[in-house]
């Protein structure tokens, strides 16, 4: 009998006591939407496409985000400007399929695609959850401020000639025999 | 067989090969760059280092390059040895020192041998902090992009381009770590096989320019095994589609046919599939108005054609099934050949010779084994380009023989070439003008077709005196005749090449006589390669009776004995004189034309039905050797187009197999056709082969802009392949290999994982089925016909020329190919040009025809003769007389000129 009381009743009383104590603890929840919760910078929410420090599109349409995506909700097509810079002709994310896993951000070699703390993406029409490049592209650098892929990569684009990327020597003169 | 111990496991290997090749044959992973299965070893990159031990007691061993070490019996080696591994890691680290960190914007990314090998060797961080060497790129023409920064100096490009393909305008320049691979100055890469650099280069120095303009990664391309429709060789291809358009074509390995390489027409000539001018809807045309037809209306139109006096005109560029369906609809007697009458005669003769036991029709692999070759009147490089590449290998048989005499292994590429220098197996070219193979030819005879035939008859006569000789042989050729006869008799595997594109039957007969004369001496079948111009010239020829020429069909329409005509994928204005076609079509009550693109013939039609292009339907074609090959559907057609056989009511769209079986049982000579169909029993649990790779991306977003609710995956009930990622991919057990991929091997080099040994048969593929069985006992020699032509004082004797870019009707609609095309031209000798006061680039009117051509003066043309290239339908070859008078024309209505013409690498200043 004593054991029964010890195993059940005391436990219940303790539980009641603890619940009672919570009445005097500050609430974790907030009165959303009157009060906005603090979102951590690395929260995996709405996906954006960022620009490099020079204000150009960071995305080079390499397709790595699309192939990393476990639900295949990213589709894009590469195109190129007259001077050889790659960028997406279209870039589409179907957010009604997106699971916010952040694989695309991890796969991105140029820090173009980033997940942001914004989570307010509800729509009445599912069709409205299909976002195109115009909807995704922001005007800033997002979370990563300094990286500029074309300043590192040895591909010539407008405004950056061969030999002008990071750690590059001037182009070789093929006709020269000097060491 | 030799026994080799690799990491403690004993393997049976071929002692004639090197260790790298044998390791790959055994399915082991060993990184390499400079070695290529088709090009042997030079030991340049040092990437395939392994440990070799003297004997079982040797615990230290020594590092050797696997590609430079023969697989001798009893060898003990280790790939996994720590020292070998760290050596390989340091080699790749040095190779990557100046690599430009641009994989995301590189077209090779995702199918890059360098990426694979870097990962395999374990290099992942660049420790070297000095500056990277950079290079300027070159403009290399409409086909290839150049990005020299990515080069790792493995020398594969120049070894392929110069040594293998015989090009002269790509070279290694500069020295030490400044080595540069490019042309001496910017400009179009001249070789017809330059596109293979895309696949030969282990990284992204040479990439496909047309593909780059609408680029997708390899894993995103929907791919199926296909067959090139550019010429009669039937190279195996793997076209890739994304977002509804065909993006590129890459090689698909077939050890019997194309091996590892394609020509540039095949690789870059697919763009007509995406052409804006593709026919989209079934229409009825009346005057200038056209009215769309519904499915029932089309059915009633077809029914109208089923009754009444209907004839059908087939097409050498349509599949066996479409030609057969038309023949089944109109009846065998009313089915007519869809090419010119001379070509029909030649094709019928070729088919007759194909049944003769005295001859053997060599595959490309067999052509590469020939050690004495005579080409009679054919411009192989421009008619069947892939064969020209094979001929460049066969002239090396002399070098291989010298090497084996000196006990040098055949894979020791540099040593074999060094030893042989310019010693080559004999290749004699008898043609009416200079050819692109002249630089490897031992003898070149440039003369008129009649004289060439005379020479060939004389060669046959020299070999066997029973073979009749022709009377008109110019005496100046006596020594050449002796020489060629002696070379052919001395050869182990002689090869004769002739065909129907020269337009001269005598040359085919003379080639047969030579082959027969040789066969009687050697008493084994002799290789006789007879070329036809188009992808299914032979297939259509087999379905047509000898009497049913196009000329007869047109005559029947004109005299009213036929009132309705169905024309299958064919522009009759390229096949018969314009006046004849006009007259016939005027008389016809009803004309139904099925085609992919609008032509002069579709413009005259009462009904036009749009048909699918090669990548949009399953089809079989018969190549020059009589090999039937199956080409799968790559992607769906989104317009109203259907396969021609489906329009013609043969079978439902999903009953392709039934149609093939019907064709095999009903059409004479096609009884083996069913063998090309994959065996449904070999598919595990009835699962299909996916056309999409396991990494295919964007399925839930590709069409989300149209409707967020994804459509059901397209079904393909009639095929063993599916339009999806699901099923049994080839890396498991599927019978069909679309695109090769193996773990760790994302590039095309993964093909070694699918071969039973390197350069061997595919485990999962189908080399095709030879349809024509040789039954007839050896017939007698042909007698030379008297075909002497006597031009009057002002006339020139005409022969036809072809161009790799332009002579094929469909590939000539491709954007990149168009940039390499020239206008119709007339080749003249300097004397003839001078006598007529013509200079290079002038426009002349051709005889009584309405056509103009650009003057092209070459010393490699006999005076008194003219070589006419017809351009892309600019000149109608059937309107040209045997002898022609030319007059200077004031008109300058030609588009392109002849600046892009590349005649021969050899002695360019002479031509």
Structural Rg of chain A: 26 Å
Uncertain parts of chain A? none
CATH fold call of the domain at 351-533 in chain B: Dimethylsulfoxide Reductase, domain 2
Structural class of chain A: alpha+beta
Q: What fraction strand of chain B? A: 15-25%
CATH 2nd-level architecture of the domain at 351-533 in chain B:
3-Layer(aba) Sandwich
N-end to C-end Cα span of chain B:
52 Å
Structural class of chain B: alpha/beta
Which sheet architecture does the biggest sheet of chain A show? 3 strands, antiparallel
Number of helices of chain B: 26
Q: Give the spatial strand order of the biggest sheet of chain B.
A: 15-14-26-25-24-16-17
CATH architecture of the domain at 47-146 in chain A: 2-Layer Sandwich
CATH homologous superfamily (4th level) name of the domain at 351-533 in chain B: Dimethylsulfoxide Reductase, domain 2
Level-1 CATH class name of the domain at 351-533 in chain B:
Alpha Beta
Choose one word for the global shape of chain B: globular
Oligomer: heterodimer
Q: Strand order within the widest sheet of chain A? A: 2-3-5
Number of helices of chain A: 5
Mean pLDDT of chain A: 92
Major sheet attributes of chain B: 7 strands, mixed
As a percent range, the share of strand residues of chain A is 5-15%
Q: How would you describe what is shown here?
A:
The complex is a heterodimer of chains A (179) and B (911). With 179 residues, chain A is α+β, with helices and mostly antiparallel strands. Chain A has a domain at 47-146: Alpha-Beta Plaits (2-Layer Sandwich), CATH 3.30.70.3270. Helices cover 22% and strands 13% of the residues of chain A. Chain A has five helices and five strands, in the order αβαββαββαα. With 911 residues, chain B is an alpha/beta fold. Among the domains of chain B are: 2-95, Ubiquitin-like (UB roll) (Roll); 298-339 and 539-654, 3-Layer(aba) Sandwich (Rossmann fold); 351-533, Dimethylsulfoxide Reductase, domain 2 (3-Layer(aba) Sandwich), CATH 3.40.228; 796-910, Beta Barrel (Barwin-like endoglucanases). Chain B has a seven-stranded mixed sheet. In chain B, strands 37-32-36-33-35-34-38 form a seven-stranded mixed sheet. The longest helix of chain B is centred in the middle third of the chain and has 18 residues, at 505-522. Chain B is globular and about 90 Å long. Classes of the chains: A alpha+beta (179), B alpha/beta (911). Chains A and B meet through helix 2, strand 2 and strand 3 of A and loops of B.
């Amino acid at each position: 009998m004593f054991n029964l009381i010890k195993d059940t009743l005391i436990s219940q009383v303790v539980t009641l006591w603890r619940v009672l104590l919570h009445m005097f603890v500050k609430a974790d929840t907030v009165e959303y939407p009157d009060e906005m919760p603090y979102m951590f910078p690395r929260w995996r929410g709405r996906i954006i496409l960022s620009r490099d420090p020079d204000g150009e599109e960071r995305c080079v349409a390499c397709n790595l985000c699309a192939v990393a995506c476990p639900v295949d909700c990213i589709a894009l097509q590469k195109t190129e400007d007259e001077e050889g810079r790659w960028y997406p002709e279209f870039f589409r994310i179907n957010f009604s399929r997106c699971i916010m896993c952040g694989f695309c951000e991890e796969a991105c070699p140029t820090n173009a695609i980033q997940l942001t703390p914004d989570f307010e993406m509800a729509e009445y029409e599912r069709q409205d959850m299909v976002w195109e490049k115009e909807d995704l592209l922001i005007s800033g650098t997002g979370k990563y401020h300094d990286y500029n892929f074309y300043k590192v990569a040895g591909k010539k684009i407008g405004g950056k000639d061969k030999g002008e990327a990071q750690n590059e020597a001037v182009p070789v003169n093929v006709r020269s025999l000097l060491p | 067989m030799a026994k080799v111990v690799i990491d403690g496991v004993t393997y049976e290997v071929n002692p004639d090969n090197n260790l790298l090749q044998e390791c790959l044959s055994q399915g082991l992973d060993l990184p390499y760059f400079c070695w290529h299965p088709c090009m042997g070893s030079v030991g340049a990159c040092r990437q395939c280092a392994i440990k070799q031990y003297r004997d079982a007691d040797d615990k230290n061993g020594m590092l050797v390059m696997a590609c430079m070490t023969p697989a001798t019996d009893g060898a003990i080696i280790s790939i996994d040895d720590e020292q070998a591994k760290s050596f390989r890691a340091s080699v790749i680290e040095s190779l990557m020192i100046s690599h430009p960190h641009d994989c995301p914007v590189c077209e090779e990314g995702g199918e890059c041998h360098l990426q694979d090998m870097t990962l395999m060797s374990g290099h992942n961080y660049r420790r070297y902090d000095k500056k990277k060497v950079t290079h300027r790129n070159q403009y290399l023409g409409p086909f290839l992009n150049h990005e020299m920064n990515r080069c790792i100096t493995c020398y594969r490009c120049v070894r392929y381009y110069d040594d293998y393909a015989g090009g002269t305008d790509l070279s290694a320049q500069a020295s030490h770590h400044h080595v540069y691979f490019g042309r001496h100055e910017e400009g179009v890469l001249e070789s017809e096989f330059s596109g293979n650099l895309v696949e030969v280069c282990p990284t992204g120095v040479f990439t496909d320019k047309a593909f780059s303009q609408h680029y997708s990664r390899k894993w995103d391309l929907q791919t199926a095994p296909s067959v090139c429709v550019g010429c009669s060789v039937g190279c195996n291809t793997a076209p890739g589609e994304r977002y509804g358009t065909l993006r590129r074509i890459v090689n698909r390995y077939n050890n019997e046919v194309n091996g590892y390489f394609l020509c540039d027409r095949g690789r870059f000539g697919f763009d007509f599939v995406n052409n804006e001018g593709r026919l989209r809807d079934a229409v009825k045309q009346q005057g200038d108005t056209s009215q769309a037809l519904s499915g029932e209306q089309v059915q009633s139109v077809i029914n109208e054609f089923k009754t009444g006096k209907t004839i059908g005109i087939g097409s050498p560029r349509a599949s066996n099934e479409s030609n057969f369906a038309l023949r089944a609809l109109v009846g065998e007697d009313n089915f007519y050949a869809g090419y010119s009458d001379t070509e029909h005669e030649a094709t019928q003769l070729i088919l007759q010779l194909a049944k003769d036991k005295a001859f053997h029709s060599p595959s490309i692999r067999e052509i590469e084994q020939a050690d004495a070759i005579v080409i009679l009147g054919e411009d192989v490089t421009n008619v069947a380009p892939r064969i020209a590449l094979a001929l460049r290998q066969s002239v090396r048989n002399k070098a291989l023989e010298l090497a084996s005499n000196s006990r040098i292994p055949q894979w020791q590429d540099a040593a074999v070439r060094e030893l042989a220098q310019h010693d080559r197996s004999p290749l004699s070219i008898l043609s009416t003008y200079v050819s692109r193979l002249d630089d490897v030819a031992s003898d070149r005879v440039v003369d008129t077709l009649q004289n060439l035939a005379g020479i060939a008859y004389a060669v046959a006569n020299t070999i066997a005196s029973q073979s009749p000789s022709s009377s008109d042989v110019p005496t100046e050729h006596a020594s050449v005749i002796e020489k060629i006869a002696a070379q052919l008799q001395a050869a182990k595997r002689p090869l004769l090449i002739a065909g129907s594109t020269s337009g001269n039957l005598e040359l085919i007969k003379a080639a047969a006589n030579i082959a027969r004369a040789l066969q009687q001496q050697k008493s084994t079948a002799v290789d006789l390669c007879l070329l036809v111009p188009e992808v299914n010239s032979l297939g259509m020829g087999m379905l047509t009776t000898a009497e049913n020429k196009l000329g007869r069909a047109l005559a029947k329409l004109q005299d009213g004995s036929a009132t309705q005509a169905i024309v299958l994928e064919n522009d009759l204005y390229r096949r018969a004189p314009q006046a004849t076609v006009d007259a016939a079509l005027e008389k016809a009550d009803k004309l139904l034309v099925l085609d992919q693109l609008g032509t002069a013939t579709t413009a005259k039609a009462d009904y036009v039905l749009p048909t699918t292009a090669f990548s949009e339907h399953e089809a079989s074609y018969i190549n020059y050797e009589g090999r039937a090959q199956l080409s799968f559907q790559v992607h769906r057609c989104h317009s109203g187009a259907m396969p021609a056989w489906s329009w013609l009511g043969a079978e439902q769209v999903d009953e392709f197999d039934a149609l093939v079986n019907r064709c095999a049982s009903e059409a004479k000579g096609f009884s083996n056709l069913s063998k090309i169909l994959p065996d449904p029993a070999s598919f595990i649990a009835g699962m299909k082969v996916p056309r999409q790779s396991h990494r295919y991306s964007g399925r839930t977003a590709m069409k989300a802009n149209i409707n967020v609710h994804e459509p059901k995956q397209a079904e393909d009930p009639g095929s063993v392949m599916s339009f999806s990622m699901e099923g049994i991919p080839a890396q498991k057990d599927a019978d069909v290999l679309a695109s090769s991929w193996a773990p760790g091997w994302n590039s095309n080099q993964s093909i070694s994982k699918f071969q039973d040994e390197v350069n061997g048969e595919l485990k999962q593929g189908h080399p095709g089925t030879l349809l024509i069985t040789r039954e007839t006992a050896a017939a007698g020699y042909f007698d030379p016909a008297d075909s002497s032509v006597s031009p009057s004082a002002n006339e020139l004797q005409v022969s036809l020329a072809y161009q790799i870019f332009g002579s094929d009707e469909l590939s000539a609609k491709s954007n990149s190919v168009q940039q390499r095309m020239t206008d119709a031209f007339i080749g003249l000798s300097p004397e003839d040009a001078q006598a007529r006061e013509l200079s290079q680039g002038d426009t002349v009117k051709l005889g009584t025809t309405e056509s103009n051509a650009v003057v092209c003066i070459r010393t490699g043309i006999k005076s008194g003769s003219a070589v006419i290239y017809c351009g892309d339908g600019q000149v109608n070859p059937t309107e040209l007389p045997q002898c022609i008078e030319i007059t200077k024309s004031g008109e300058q209505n030609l588009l392109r000129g002849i600046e892009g013409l590349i005649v021969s690498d050899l002695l360019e200043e002479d031509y």
